[in-house]
Amino acid sequence: MSVKSADLRANSVAAGRCVAEDTRAVVREFLTARIAGDTGRLVELFADEVDWLLAENPGVPWIRPRSTAAECAAQFTDLMRFTVPEEARASVHTFLVDGTDAVLMGHVAGTVRATGKRFEGPFALHLTVEGGRITRHHLYEDSRSIAEACAP
To answer: In what order do the strands lie in the sheet with 89-98?
Structure first.
């Protein structure tokens, strides 16, 4: 009985490792598509319905509720339209994966096109990958810095 129990645990650990590897691969594809501005690939990576969370910020034109793959992918296009792409900076210093969940932490900075003001601060992004597609996108960032940069 203990041999079967050990085999089951080993199989469970191996399956968990496989799920985590799949999650890591999809998140890497997401980051690559995001950096390249490949919205077509982003649409493919997002699930048809996404649990999207980004604190509403009425003064920031690219921050709004989203739920479909196309809406989520369009966030990149909106961000590039309202900020100066050449001055955008993002770095990831932590990339954690546990099964279907991934958490990225880092720093983001940019300049709002309309005001010329800069924003910057830390961020944390929680993604969930199921069936090879992103089903959860929860972004936590310094919304005050961004709102101040958008204010005239």
So the answer is: 46-54, 133-141, 118-130, 101-111, 89-98
Residues in the chain: 152
Q: 105: closest CA among 116, 117, 96?
A: 96
CA 79 → CA 22, 87, 96, distances in Å? 28, 12, 25
pLDDT digits (tens, 9 = 90+) for 117-137: 999 999 999 999 999 999 999
Q: With contact defined as beta carbons under 8 Å apart, do 94 and 106 qualify?
A: yes
> Which residues make beta-bridge pairs with 119?
110
Longest dimension (CA), the chain: 71
pTM over 0.85: yes
Cα(150)–Cα(137) distance, integer angstroms: 23
Q: Is the pLDDT of residue 48 over 60?
A: yes
